[in-house]
Structures are given as structure tokens and as C-alpha cells.
Design a protein that fits this description.
The complex is a heterodimer of chains A (about 160) and B (about 170).
Chain A: H1 6-24, H2 34-60, H3 68-94, H4 96-99, H5 103-119, H6 141-152
Chain B: E1 7-11, H1 16-21, H2 29-45, E2 49-54, E3 60-69, E4 81-84, E5 87-89, H3 98-116, E6 123-129, H4 133-141, E7 145-146, E8 151-152, E9 159-166
Parallel strand pairs in B: 4-6
Antiparallel strand pairs in B: 1-2, 2-3, 3-4, 3-5, 6-9, 7-9, 8-9
Chain lengths: ~160, ~170
């Protein structure tokens, strides 16, 4: 099993935080308009969500050792990013009327919703109890071909539907 | 005897139904362990959905879960696929055909998911310990086929099977 320490959390999140600041200040190459700033922030929120999920699922699959200090780091950093992104969303919201149309604001709201979903009722990642997520099955080419044949030969789904 | 019709209810992490289900006692303590450890993680970090099932008197009789993941990627040519991590019937409600209805509902949901996303593999998968003969019998009756195996769980040296059912029409 691999380790994943809090410095690795920083290595993942620091560039995203720096980009978030660039986007929020209207700096950086991608963010030439307010809407693109908001869209840029939304993209970063989604990347933070994916990074956190990837770590949690690595722990679940038994690929990475769980460390409480790492979990604390994720929670603290992601909460800070959420707070920062919320402030950006609020400033965008206040300019929505004069700007007429800000699709990036909706994207950012979706990103915030995903971050909030992860932070609220936090679930501590743990190695799975069920065997399949932890299993490291290795098949030969012949075995894989046999499995493919087995799956291809499965009968199609019937039309019976007993549930309302 | 006809099975009692069941109504599926979507369950969210930490809602009142979820909190009720985790208090149920199961004959197999493994079910409780997966329910408490694995399912919250799948609901939070993966794409898992959970349903509780109510009988006509509105009693909750069981639950089921369906995820979209790569846990069986060795079987699915590395494609994302639907997977049933866990289902169970309340021990006081067993022997009434609820299990079959729950499995059929999960298979139908998997079919809907696959129909809506053509990049997913055409089968729904599940894993079951080889000594869970009643569960294997239920899954077989519901159309699941045993794939190559058994495999050994390195945590407890128990052997488990992987079963699959196609969820696309002819």
C-alpha cells in the first residue's frame, strides 16, 4: 500500500488555490471576462472535488493508507476553498443584473454544491469491508477472452417488471 | 403465493430512513459491516444510489444499493459498469419474496442507467461469498450467472464469486 501524506495534499491543492486566486482577481490568461472568471472558479471547484474523491476512493480500495492528519488537511483546505469560492459566487451574483447573463455563475453554483456535499456530514474514508474493491485480480489474455465470451453469452434482459 | 408489492424509496446518506436501516440486525454480521463502512463511502465519494422498500402497510422491509464504478474492470474491459454492492431484507420480513423484488428493481435501475449512458458495460455485477448459498440461489433465480472464480478474500481467506447479468435488451 502507498502512503499519501499532508504534503501531497498540498501538492495537489496548492496549484488549484493559486489558480482560484488568479481567477478571482481577474488575472491569469483564461479569465478575461467576469463570466470566464466564474467559469474558471467552477472548473477549479470540480477539480478539487475530483482530487478529494480520488484520495478517498484510493483509501477505500486499499491502495492508500488512511492517515488522520491527511484527512484533517483535506477537510481544512477544501473548507477554505469552499469559503473562497462562495465569496466569488456572491460577488458574481451581485453583478448578475448589469452583466445580463452569467452562465459561469450557474457552473460555479454547481461546483459549490458538490464541495458542500463532500464537506457536510463528512464521511471518513476507510478500507472497504467487501472484498471486490480491494481485489487485485490478474487474468491472462486467454482468461480475459473466456470472460468476454461468458459476458457476451449472457441472455438479454427480460421484459418482466414486477416493481411499480 | 404472489409476492407482496413493494414501493422503492430513495434513501440519502444520514436521512431518517438510512439511520433506521443501520439499526437493523442481520443474521450475517457482514451485512451490517458493509452497510456501516462501505455504503456511506460509496454514497459520498462514488455514484451509489440507495433505496429502501416499503410494503403496502408502509413498513420498511429491505434496502438495495446500485453503484457505477470500475470494481469489476477486469471483467468489463476496463469500462465503467453498474454494480450491486449490497442488498438485504429485514430479518423479520424474510421468506416473503421481497429479495427477488429488490434484486429485480436494482437490475431494472441498472438497465436504465446503462440505457442512458452507452459508454457503460452491458452487464450489472455483484460479488457474494461462496458460503452464502441462499444469496447465490436468489441471484441465480433472478437471472445472474456466475463468472470465473472463486476468488480469495485476502482479509479472511473466504472465497467469493462474481456474478453478472446483462442489462441490455436483445
Amino acid at each position: 500500500m502507498k502512503t499519501f501524506d499532508y504534503q501531497q495534499v498540498d501538492a495537489v491543492l496548492s496549484p488549484l488555490k493559486a489558480r482560484l486566486n488568479d481567477c478571482a482577481h481577474g488575472e491569469g490568461d483564461q479569465c478575461e471576462t467576469l463570466d470566464s472568471h466564474l467559469d474558471c472558479c467552477a472548473t477549479i471547484c470540480f477539480q478539487v472535488v475530483e482530487s478529494l474523491k480520488a484520495w478517498a476512493l484510493s483509501v477505500f480500495a486499499g491502495e492508500v493508507i488512511f492517515e488522520a492528519a491527511v484527512e484533517d488537511r483535506w477537510r481544512t483546505e477544501v473548507a477554505q476553498i469552499y469559503t473562497r469560492a462562495t465569496a466569488i459566487w456572491q460577488s458574481g451574483r451581485s453583478l448578475e443584473v448589469p452583466c445580463y447573463q452569467l452562465p459561469g455563475l450557474n457552473n460555479l453554483q454547481s461546483g459549490l454544491w458538490e464541495l458542500q456535499w463532500l464537506l457536510e456530514n463528512w464521511v471518513s474514508p476507510r478500507r472497504s469491508v467487501a472484498p471486490l474493491p480491494r481485489a487485485r485480480m490478474q487474468f491472462t489474455t486467454e482468461q480475459k477472452a473466456g470472460i468476454r465470451d461468458q459476458l457476451a453469452a449472457l441472455p438479454p434482459l427480460g421484459l418482466e417488471n414486477p416493481m411499480p | 403465493m404472489d409476492a407482496i408489492p413493494l414501493t422503492p424509496i430513495v434513501v440519502n446518506l444520514n436521512d431518517s430512513i438510512f439511520n433506521e436501516i443501520v439499526t437493523w440486525k442481520f443474521e450475517d454480521e457482514f451485512v451490517s459491516r458493509i452497510l456501516l463502512n462501505d455504503i456511506p463511502q460509496r454514497l459520498k465519494y462514488a455514484s451509489c444510489q440507495m433505496w429502501a422498500y416499503a410494503d403496502p402497510e408502509r413498513n420498511l422491509v429491505g434496502f438495495g444499493t446500485l453503484d457505477v464504478c470500475k470494481d469489476c474492470s477486469e471483467f468489463s474491459d476496463d469500462q465503467l459498469h453498474t454494480y450491486i454492492p449490497l442488498l438485504a431484507v429485514d430479518s423479520s420480513q424474510q421468506g416473503r419474496g421481497h429479495g427477488k423484488l429488490i434484486v429485480n428493481h436494482l437490475v431494472k435501475q441498472a438497465a436504465c442507467v446503462v440505457a442512458g449512458n452507452k459508454t457503460l458495460h452491458h452487464a450489472v455485477f455483484l460479488d457474494v461469498y461462496e458460503n452464502s448459498t441462499a444469496a447465490i440461489g436468489l441471484y441465480t433465480k433472478c437471472g445472474f450467472t456466475k463468472l470465473d472464480g472463486p476468488f480469495v478474500d485476502s482479509d479472511n481467506d473466504k472465497t467469493f464469486l462474481i456474478m453478472a447479468q446483462r442489462v441490455t435488451p436483445a
